[in-house]
Design a protein that fits this description.
This protein is of the alpha/beta class and 375 residues long. The protein contains 13 helices and 15 strands. It binds pyridoxal-5'-phosphate. The site of pyridoxal-5'-phosphate has 14 residues, from α3 and α4.
């Protein structure tokens, strides 16, 4: 079975991880520090805090932005549930706004219609690796006193208007799960433009521990002393994972380039094929394509999914609208709320996309799908 996503592990990655295993630090040590500096460097030069997963990064980011009961978080339904659930866990009310019909990215016009003075965060997702229109979203956020969050689990290495992902929103989160564009095994990161938000994120991801002498309530307690001023969790990445990530980061440009080549090969082959619709790309954007979300028209998505799998080609559907999950349904969220997201979901099929996919593999995917659609 050809998988739909897969990590790219080179001997250099294995060597980097082995070197850490032979050293003194397994947990948070110098390699985590180096990895965070390198993530910050590709993400606009802002501070980065590594975490144990993309979900943890989202939880940390919402905490650092002060999200709690009574707050509203406006987000997209076209995402993995964690974008919404990590804020819901903090007691916030999740408000789903619809996506644009072509890109399936959070639509600023739809956001504008639902923001209130209780809106704390506008959380958009760079779906498939295509950065969102954060200029428009930031304008809305500034107007109502909210912050922007970029769930960039798909888009590390992408740019919009020449600016890198990580520089587009107030806070950006990454996932380094194996199918994503860069991996640490499990892992993630938070990038924050404001120092106070970065500090809050770092403390929450480290149990709330404070060691900065300036901030200690009992500074004369002794050199061993540390304090907790607000509760946190242990979401620290290990040096083992960070070694893999640091080694992977050196090949990020190559990963992004190969993903773009495969995307172009799919686009060329599928252009003009009746029954299929290729993904849309905005003019000022260089996506870091994580998914290739083709649209299967005429109500044939399920058939195409099943026949592709039968042919040994791993396809996926990304995503069911987040509020269809029973946890949201049980809270009173209703189908039909975001019709464009639901229409997109009904047609979407993610085709295999990862750097080690050969042109021959890609052509096999193309021939199989075109064959299914033609019959
Ligand atoms: C993968 C993903 C996450 C969660 O990341 P994990 O590392 O799997 O916890 C969050 N948001 C989006 C859009 C994702 O694709």
């Amino acid at each position: 079975m050809l998988p739909y996503g897969r990590q790219s592990i080179h001997p250099a990655d294995v060597d980097a991880v082995s070197a850490v295993l032979r050293g003194d630090w397994l947990t948070t040590g110098p390699t985590v520090t180096a990895f965070e500096a390198a993530v910050g460097a590709v993400a606009g030069g802002h501070p980065a805090i590594s975490c144990t997963s993309g979900t943890a990064a989202l939880h940390v980011a919402y905490v650092a932005l002060g999200v709690g009961p009574g707050d509203e978080v406006v987000t997209t339904p076209m995402t993995f549930v964690a974008t919404a659930s990590s804020a819901a866990l903090l007691g916030a009310t999740i408000v789903f706004a619809d996506v644009t019909e072509d890109t399936a990215l959070l639509d600023p016009t739809a956001v504008d219609a639902v923001v209130t003075d209780r809106t704390k965060v506008i959380a958009a997702v760079d779906y498939a690796g295509h950065p969102c229109d954060f200029d428009a979203l930031q304008t809305i956020a500034d107007r109502v006193g909210a912050r922007t969050l970029d769930d960039a689990a798909h888009s590390i290495g992408g740019t919009r208007g020449g600016r890198p992902v990580g520089d587009l929103a107030d806070v950006t989160t990454f996932s380094f799960f194996p199918t994503k564009n860069l991996t640490t095994g499990e892992g993630g990161a938070v990038v924050a433009k404001e120092t106070a938000v970065a500090t809050a994120a770092r403390e929450f991801h480290n149990i709330g521990l404070i060691r900065d002498p300036e901030r200690l309530r009992y500074p004369d307690e002794g050199p061993w002393h540390q304090e907790v001023h607000s509760f946190g969790l242990n979401y620290r990445l290990t040096d083992v994972g960070a070694a893999l990530g640091l080694s992977q980061l050196e090949r990020l440009d190559g990963f992004v380039k190969r993903r773009a080549e495969i995307t172009a090969r799919y686009n060329n082959a599928f252009a003009g094929v009746d029954g299929l619709r290729t993904p849309t790309q905005s003019a000022d954007v260089a996506p870091a394509w994580h998914l290739y979300p083709i649209r299967i028209l005429d109500g044939r998505r399920r058939e195409a999914f099943e026949r592709m799998r039968e042919a040994g080609i791993g396809v996926q559907v990304n995503y069911i609208p987040a509020y269809w999950h029973p946890v949201f349904a049980d809270m009173g969220y209703r189908r039909g709320t975001c019709p464009r997201a639901e229409a997109f979901y009904a047609e979407e099929l993610s085709l295999p996309l990862y750097p080690s996919l050969t042109d021959g593999d890609v052509d096999r995917v193309i021939e199989t799908l075109v064959g299914i659609i033609a019959s």
